[in-house]
């Protein structure tokens, strides 16, 4: 009698339906959890770094460099002469000649515009806009090729064109 | 946390320095001499048995000199896990993965962490 009751209990259609439903829900939850935990690692490993090789100097005369002062509005004599006229939109440029101090990237062309960030010596940017003249300098709008949050206007005097990464 | 990897690699053949900007914000600057001395290839590490280890402390004491062995010609990506440099003396067998390059960072912070 007891065995029959137990047997009838396990044959209850609602119990079978609930068990199957619970199993399916558990499977879906597991798959979702796996896809959620794996995707960041996959995307992190998939991207490659931007590799830039800066060539040795050629017979072209090397531009003299000087160290910018710490003053917010340096005199014109603090800046090295602008590079030859090969700066253009879509060119890759490198910050150079700052003596390790970095190059200020501003919200607009002009020495009175807000400094957004400091571009590091040797950091590479993509030229997106320009040129514009302000405060006796030529300004270009730069953006980080691998970090679009790094952008702003910079004077051409501390930029040099590099090979496309 | 994301896998530690470079977001930008710049090799300045004039200054003889390779700079790596990492995705955690750290910047590593390697002299070409250190970069070459630390070549992880079998020849550079004295046999296959010694490959795959961490950089050795003596590597950081290498005297910088300008010779064909440490004049860099080119760097190529190896998959998405490392780079291989090509040197003026023809050597191009070392594969530097991201983990090894980060351990090779000569900055004082990284060296203290390694010790």
Please provide a written account of the structure:
- The complex is a heterodimer of chains A (165) and B (115).
- With 165 residues, chain A is an alpha+beta fold.
- Chain A folds into 2 domains: 2-46; 76-162, SH3 Domains (SH3 type barrels), CATH 2.30.30.
- Chain A contains 2 helices and 8 strands, in the order H-H-E-E-E-E-E-E-E-E.
- Chain B contains 4 helices and 6 strands.
- Chain B has helices spanning 32-37, 42-45, 98-103, 108-114, and strands at residues 6-12, 17-22, 27-31, 72-78, 82-87, 96-97.
- The longest helix of chain B is centred in the C-terminal third of the chain and has 7 residues, at 108-114.
- Chain B starts with 5 loop residues before the first strand and ends with a helix.
- The chains are: A alpha+beta (165), B alpha+beta (115).
- The A-B interface holds A 40-41, 44-57, 94, 120, 122-124, 145-147, 165 and B 2-3, 5-14, 17, 19-21, 23, 27, 72, 74-77, 80-81, 83.
- Strand 1 (50-54) of chain A pairs parallel with strand 1 of chain B.
């Amino acid at each position: 009698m007891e065995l029959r009751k137990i047997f009838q209990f396990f044959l209850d259609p609602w119990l079978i339906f609930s068990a199957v439903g619970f199993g399916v829900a558990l499977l879906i939850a597991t798959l979702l959890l796996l896809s959620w935990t794996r995707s960041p690692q996959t995307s992190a490993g998939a991207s490659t770094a931007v590799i830039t090789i800066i060539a040795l100097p050629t017979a072209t005369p090397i531009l003299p460099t000087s160290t910018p002062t710490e003053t917010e509005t340096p005199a014109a004599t603090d800046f090295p002469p602008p590079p030859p006229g090969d700066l253009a939109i879509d060119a890759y440029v490198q910050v150079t000649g700052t003596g390790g101090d970095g190059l200020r990237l501003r919200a607009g062309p002009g020495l009175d515009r807000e400094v957004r960030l400091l571009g590091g010596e040797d950091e590479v940017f993509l030229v997106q806009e320009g040129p514009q003249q302000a405060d006796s300098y030529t300004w270009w709008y730069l953006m980080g090729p691998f970090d679009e949050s790094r952008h702003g206007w910079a004077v051409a005097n501390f930029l040099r064109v590099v090979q496309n990464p | 946390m994301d896998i530690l990897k470079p977001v930008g690699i710049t090799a300045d053949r004039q200054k003889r320095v390779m700079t790596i900007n990492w995705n955690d914000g750290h910047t590593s600057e390697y002299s070409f001499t250190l970069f070459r001395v630390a070549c992880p290839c079998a020849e550079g590490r004295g046999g296959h048995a010694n490959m795959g280890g961490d950089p050795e402390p003596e590597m950081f004491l290498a005297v910088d000199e300008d010779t064909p062995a440490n004049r860099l010609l080119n760097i190529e990506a190896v998959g998405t896990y490392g780079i291989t440099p090509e040197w003026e003396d023809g050597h191009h067998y070392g594969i530097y993965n991201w983990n090894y390059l980060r351990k090779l960072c000569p900055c004082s912070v990284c060296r203290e962490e390694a010790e």
